[in-house]
Amino acid sequence: MPLKISISFFLATAHEVSHDIAPIFLAQGCVVFDLSGAYRVQNKHFYQQYYGFEHKNTDWLSQAVYGLAEWNADQISQAQLIAVPGCYPTVSQLSLKPLVEAGLLDSTHWPVINATSGVSGAGRKASLTNSFCEVSLQPYGVFTHRHQPEIATHLGIDVIFTPHLGNFARGILATITCKLKQGVTENEVRQAFETAYQDQPLVRVYDKGLPALKAVVGTAFCDIGLAQQGEHLIIVGAEDNLLKGAAAQAVQCMNIRFGFAPTETLI
């Protein structure tokens, strides 16, 4: 019996480059895991506005599966093109999606996401704005960051997202403020997260306390902590932007796609 070989490619290239070369590999029957933003949102107009290029591969764009591994495993397992989510969108969606799916949020109040990334999130290009010795904690991309529409699109709700750059090397800490529907209890909130992640070993939901970056840097985990007061809920999510927010999630998607345990080689 002939050995069946599947060929896959990981693209960690610029958005425009992934846009151009992914179809070449896909046309040869390869499975592509794209870490750029080129196929994350199935709306061609999004790319002109937020990425500055015209999306011409709309057939592949419509077939791309969004690689939020804990939530889209069934689709990932059948996909040829997997668009690996951005670093901020990963931690933001993992922190909010259990509440959205359980219908616990007050839809008249947009969740507010304040997230801080280490300088590695800004890339390696030599620039004063991301030079380690020059960076001082500050927001950027206010109301204009391309990850805001990515988060909102895949959550299915509007959010306010403000990223910050911090003078540390790696990791993202997201503090998310949201309002619950009247009468929602802490037990209901906890149950929503338990239902979502009880069988997801790379997401760790704290029983008490809030996560710190030191718990996740250098790992493939996303840690989530909760604090509730009445109808107000604070969620704190932490991840390594280079691992769970990028490379490790791509490997997790590959594991799912080819039938391995999601954590294979990651823990």
TrEMBL record:
<dbReference type="InterPro" id="IPR050085">
    <property type="entry name" value="AGPR"/>
</dbReference>
<dbReference type="GO" id="GO:0070401">
    <property type="term" value="F:NADP+ binding"/>
</dbReference>
<feature type="active site">
    <location>
        <position position="87"/>
    </location>
</feature>
<keyword id="KW-0560">Oxidoreductase</keyword>
<protein>
    <recommendedName>
        <fullName>N-acetyl-gamma-glutamyl-phosphate reductase</fullName>
        <ecNumber>1.2.1.38</ecNumber>
    </recommendedName>
</protein>
<dbReference type="InterPro" id="IPR058924">
    <property type="entry name" value="AGPR_dimerisation_dom"/>
</dbReference>
<dbReference type="Pfam" id="PF22698">
    <property type="entry name" value="Semialdhyde_dhC_1"/>
</dbReference>
<dbReference type="InterPro" id="IPR023013">
    <property type="entry name" value="AGPR_AS"/>
</dbReference>
<dbReference type="GO" id="GO:0051287">
    <property type="term" value="F:NAD binding"/>
</dbReference>
<feature type="domain" description="Semialdehyde dehydrogenase NAD-binding">
    <location>
        <begin position="1"/>
        <end position="79"/>
    </location>
</feature>
<dbReference type="Pfam" id="PF01118">
    <property type="entry name" value="Semialdhyde_dh"/>
</dbReference>
<dbReference type="GO" id="GO:0003942">
    <property type="term" value="F:N-acetyl-gamma-glutamyl-phosphate reductase activity"/>
</dbReference>
<keyword id="KW-0055">Arginine biosynthesis</keyword>
<dbReference type="InterPro" id="IPR000534">
    <property type="entry name" value="Semialdehyde_DH_NAD-bd"/>
</dbReference>
<dbReference type="InterPro" id="IPR036291">
    <property type="entry name" value="NAD(P)-bd_dom_sf"/>
</dbReference>
<dbReference type="GO" id="GO:0006526">
    <property type="term" value="P:L-arginine biosynthetic process"/>
</dbReference>
<keyword id="KW-0028">Amino-acid biosynthesis</keyword>
<comment type="pathway">
    <text>Amino-acid biosynthesis; L-arginine biosynthesis; N(2)-acetyl-L-ornithine from L-glutamate: step 3/4.</text>
</comment>
<keyword id="KW-0521">NADP</keyword>
<dbReference type="InterPro" id="IPR000706">
    <property type="entry name" value="AGPR_type-1"/>
</dbReference>
